[in-house]
Amino acid sequence: MGMLVGVSAGLYVALNLLGAGGGRPNSAQTVQTVNATLCAVWFFSASFGGSVLNKIGPAITASLGVMGYAIYVGSLWYFDQTGKEGFPIFAGVAIGISAGLIFVTMGYIAMSYSEEQDRGKYITMSVNLQAMGSIIGGIIPLLINKNATEAAGVPPAVYIVFIVLMVVGMIGAFALMPPSKITRDDGTPVSVVQARSFGQELKSNLEIFKDWKLLIMIPAFLPAECFLVYGGSVNAFHNNLRTRCLLSFISVVLQVPAGWGLQAILDHKTWKRRTRAFIGLGVVGIPLIAAWIWEIVRVRNYDRSNPPTRAMDWSDDGFVAIFFLFMMNWVFSSLWQYIILYFLGTLTNSPRKAANYAGVFRGFLGAGEAIAFGVDSIAVPYMKEAAVIFTFYTTGVIIFAYLATFHISETEYFNGEDDVVIPKHILEEHPEEAVKVHPEGTLRGEEQHPVESQVTVDAEKA
């Protein structure tokens, strides 16, 4: 699943980081408008994408999720060649639908296919594979443009390679299996999902909005990808093409080991889940806030109506500070999504709920990005943009600190979620809870998944 997100959203990120219009500064307004359309549609497709996923399954949902990205890349190529806006605007709607579907599927698998003790690992694998897509997408234009010191568009070869990779991803998506066909090492399935009508799925989706824990996370969701919009815009304003390529490539390369470092904290075997959440939040939140304060200071004198007469090159004296700040902003803003998915994963083990939680997260993430694209398209001063993003990140850190303090429990396995099959070792480790939920010492559906007699014996002793 992570590879599918890599060849879709990962390549999309790489292309955006080359700058507006795939690298042409004069096409900034059109592409920002298209991306705002994308994110506005994304809000609805993600918010209700869980209902679609629960009805048609992860394979078809993911394939449709990749399709829109291929259309979008083709539209940028067309726009670079012709300057006509019709196709890109249509593509903005297509990728908006696809983005909701692909990311709902990613969150669904990361949160519900994993056991609680491995949730950080699944989240990290998913998001890091998306980053690998950006790495591949970043190294291609970096190699092509390594000697280009002037502003220029993206060569056709880059668009062609991206589209081919996306088509391969569309086909590969059909290898995904539903949770009922995924078996753990102990022989139990991940979930037993009962068939429901689309109306029932939609009703379940809407009921998610009654969950106050989810609702108070919304301010944390909104800025989760605004840094892509802001970073791409400032990058295009201030740096030449080969410097933009270098910054985007190295930042995503650094995201991968940083993600695994965070995973080691989130899945630490000897710490309680609340402790893991606190430490992970601190490791990400503190440098994230510091980076955005620095960014506000850096761009305070930037005038968008008066771009620099000579774009910065990586050989210039002031590049080191720009490089270091860009790395901080990118890496810790990226890790913010790992934190969000981890906190969402503490709320449920149900595939149905996970799909809907992931949808709401991605929906409001898309809404935040749509606002960022819209604001950027009217040339709001960079300092004001950075200040708003900083405010939302800071609010998110406070919200997650509150949830970690008062509302994260050690496990959600015994909360009576209908479609969750509890792993055998969890029942063995919690015999008192096991006998409350499963009086006969069996998992849900005795005829399907009998629990070993030792669990029953231990439960009776308890």
Describe the structure.
The protein is mainly alpha-helical and 462 residues long. The chain folds into 2 domains: 405 residues, Growth Hormone, Chain: A, CATH 1.20.1250; 38 residues, no CATH class. The protein is built from 19 helices and no strands. The longest helix has 27 residues. The relative contact order is 0.15.
Tell me the radius of gyration. 23 Å
CATH architecture heading of the largest domain: Up-down Bundle
Structural class computed from helices and strand pairing: mainly alpha
Instruction: Give me the CATH superfamily of the largest domain.
Output: MFS general substrate transporter like domains
Number of E-state strands = 0
Transmembrane segments: 35-53, 60-79, 91-110, 122-144, 156-176, 214-234, 246-266, 278-299, 319-345, 357-380, 386-404
Main location: membrane
Protein name: Major facilitator superfamily (MFS) profile domain-containing protein
Region (Disordered): 441-462
Kindly list the characteristics that best describe this protein:
Growth Hormone, Chain: A, 19 helices, 70% helix, 462 residues, disordered C terminus, mainly alpha
Note the topology:
Layout: H1 2-17, H2 28-47, H3 49-56, H4 58-82, H5 86-112, H6 119-144, H7 156-172, H8 198-207, H9 212-216, H10 218-221, H11 226-238, H12 241-266, H13 273-298, H14 319-345, H15 351-377, H16 382-406, H17 424-429, H18 431-437, H19 453-461
Helix pairs in contact: 1-4, 1-5, 1-6, 1-7, 2-5, 2-15, 3-4, 3-5, 3-8, 3-15, 4-5, 4-7, 5-6, 5-14, 5-15, 6-12, 6-14, 11-15, 11-16, 12-14, 13-14, 13-16, 14-15, 18-19
